[in-house]
Design brief:
By secondary structure, the chain is an alpha+beta fold. The protein has one domain: RNA polymerase II/Efflux pump adaptor protein, barrel-sandwich hybrid domain (OB fold (Dihydrolipoamide Acetyltransferase, E2P)), CATH 2.40.50.100. Helices cover 19% and strands 34% of the residues. It has four helices and nine strands; from the N terminus they run βββαβββββααβα. The strands form two sheets. The chain has a six-stranded antiparallel beta sheet with strand order 1-2-3-9-8-5. The longest helix has 8 residues. The protein is globular, with a radius of gyration of 13 Å.
Length: 128
């Protein structure tokens, strides 16, 4: 099964994706990650207003197989969470790059984005 790796995103080695729009980063987990997790049954989202550092565990996703920490790929302040995915965790599986995103961060160090994996690098990592 080949995973989708959209070309307009950046990625982490721990399988989070980031979509940058101005000073806002939208964060979720990759198609590859949701396939590995299988059916997601619970998502614990971070608090709005929380200050986070790149690489910090900020959320938890639980599937029928396991629980995994979700790390913020960038530093900044959580400015929004996706309540829909909290209420319907299966969105993580059905739409990982859209309705299944987890939270948004106002970037405090936009240069951090440059250190994230490109789509080509991430594709190599997962063998896509």
């Amino acid at each position: 099964m080949s995973s989708q790796v959209p070309a307009d995103l950046r990625y982490t080695k721990s399988h989070e994706w980031v979509r940058i729009a101005g000073d806002t980063a939208t964060v979720g987990i990759t198609d590859h990650a949701q396939h590995e997790l299988t059916d997601v049954v619970f998502v614990e989202l971070p608090a709005v207003g929380r200050k986070v550092k790149a690489g910090e565990a900020v959320a938890v996703v639980e599937s029928v197989k396991t629980a995994s920490d979700i790390y913020s790929p960038v530093s900044g302040e959580i400015i929004a969470v996706n309540d829909a995915v909290g209420q319907d965790p299966a969105l993580t599986n059905s739409a990982p790059y859209a309705a299944g995103h987890f939270f948004q961060v106002r970037l405090s160090a936009s240069a951090e984005v440059d250190s994230l994996l490109t789509p080509a690098d991430y594709s190599k990592q997962i063998g896509a």
